[in-house]
Amino acid sequence: MRHRTDHRKLNRTSEHRIAMLRNMVASLFEHGRITTTLPKAKEARRYAERCITYGKKALAATEPAEQLHYRRLAEQALASKDAVKRLVEDVAPKYKERTGGYTRVLKAGFRFGDRSPIAIFELV
């Protein structure tokens, strides 16, 4: 039974998994598109959507303290301050009117070495 199973473990320790997903989402904001395995892309989508929401809330906030709060939440979720800067200045304004679904996962075949399903993970 899958009761209360919240996320994919991806055969990694929690520290490794969190670091990997933070780096993947930071790379997504830097490049706009990354190629990875399908389960990793589906799991990273959760982090990316949450980060974009933080960026949107930072833009919409009227008080400087509130803007700083959402920037710091995004910094916790991402691996670098450069990624947070890019998120708030470039990525979040594009999705100002959109209520969700900021990312897309496209299946792209199978990897040659082990036949893992490959996906393209990109911003909409």
Describe the 3D structure.
This protein is an alpha+beta fold and 124 residues long. 56% of the residues lie in helices and 16% in strands. It is built from four helices and three strands, in the order αβαααββ. The chain has a three-stranded antiparallel beta sheet. α1 (14-31) packs across α4 (81-94) and α2 (38-60) crosses α4. The radius of gyration is 15 Å and the shape is globular. The mean pLDDT is 94.
Radius of gyration: 15 Å
Structural class of the secondary structure composition?
alpha+beta
Across the major sheet, the strand order is 1-3-2
What sort of overall outline do the alpha carbons produce when their principal axes are compared?
globular
Low-confidence spans: none
Largest beta-sheet details: 3 strands, antiparallel
Query: N-to-C terminal Cα separation, in Å?
Result: 34 Å
Order of helices and strands: HEHHHEE
Per DSSP, what share of the residues sits in E-state strands of 2 or more residues?
15-25%
| Helix coverage percent | 55-70%
Q: What is the mean predicted local confidence, pLDDT?
A: 94
Tally of extended strands? 3
> Can you count the helices?
4
What are the key terms here?
single chain, 124 residues, alpha+beta, three-stranded antiparallel beta sheet, 4 helices, 16% strand, globular
